[in-house]
Amino acid sequence: MASERLGRQVTQQDVADACERSVRWYRDLEAGANTRLTREQCEAIGKLFLLGRDELQALLLYSMGGAVAAGPAPAFDTPTRRAVQALLDQQTNPAWLLDSKWNIIGYNDPMKTWCPWVMDPRANLMRWSLLSDEAKTVFVDWNKHAIEWLAMLRFSALQHPQDAEIGALVAEIINGDAHLRRLWEERCDVTEAREAFYYRVSLPNHNFEIIELESQTLFPAALPDCRMVIMSPLNDCDAATDASGQDMRGGEPSGRSSNGLLPGQISVTTPAEAAEYAGEGAIALPILSELMGHGCRLTYGPSTRTVIWATRQDDGRWDVAEVNPYTVIVRMPQAIHVKGASEEYKLLTRALLPIDSRDAVQRTQEMTAQLRRRIEVLEEIHRDEWETHRDRVPYTWHPVDEI
């Protein structure tokens, strides 16, 4: 790579001369000798190889054996975390807080609505982005972003080489996907943090329409080992719509998406305490909760037409969030086929329709016509594929077969 940048071959003698050391010393360094470089030597190598800022920073960290050990992020109920969470809650765009190990330790309402997975215990940006099937569907250019995420993960490993959790995360990711392992072994990119970066994503909360986002990363001075990321839409995607352009996140156009009881991210001691936030007439959703997994308890609040989503954390407490029923439904479409879950699924689906019965029926008729046509299109595609590849595709009946 350095030779490509310079337009000529860089020799071992060149590097040895730049560091004012012998060729043998540099050969030992290339062979993995545990030799610490001075800052001057690092800067000389950086100048010779035309290293960027992040690459030079990584070389300095390597020569020093890493940065100061990253401590655990302050507990949620500390003044520092409360202040940062308040800043998150003030953002109108999706925003989250990550610790030095890429764990999600804070988020605001828009983020949990766009990306419900952030509410899962052990939610980790790198694990989800690189290993989950969901991420590969969400990000239009997933392969391009994967290279960047691995570069940031590699920088974290250089920054904290003795951190067991980061080491375990790296091992889990590169051993969990052969393609990622190959990228890890073949490339050497390092990135401390992206500047303004652009994504094209397809999210269920926006009816899988492709939208463009710009991410900005900030490092809070009070939490130097953490980073705050704010996602800003570059086009108008304020409302999740169905195929007809109707807002499907709230039953009424002016319906509330929050009952105002939750001042952002909160934590309680029991799931029963969390369910109280659903208000009068709360309805437990035990089957959907079990399907969601991860120690999850879902409770529907009829008065607000929202769902209280509680997840058990490692310390035994329960994090509580209030979400629109749409957020639950799109997360688990398979629930409609599970025995016993249909009533709970129907309850949440009804909550997405207008309150007035006549308006609700009219809306269901419109949606039924749309869905029926979609089914017909899928059946037509099935038939086309069968007629083209009869030896490999299962037969599908068509009226012409009876003629």
UniProtKB/TrEMBL annotation:
- Where are the bilayer-spanning segments? none
- Give start and end of each MmyB-like transcription regulator ligand binding domain: 81-240
In which residue ranges is the amino acid composition biased (Polar residues)?
A: 255-264
Residue numbers spanned by region Disordered:
241-264
Q: Which domain of life is it from?
A: Bacteria
Q: Which PANTHER family does this entry report, sorted A to Z?
A: BLL4672 PROTEIN (PTHR35010:SF2), BLL4672 PROTEIN-RELATED (PTHR35010)
Please state what the protein is called: Helix-turn-helix transcriptional regulator
UniProt source species: Streptomyces nigrescens
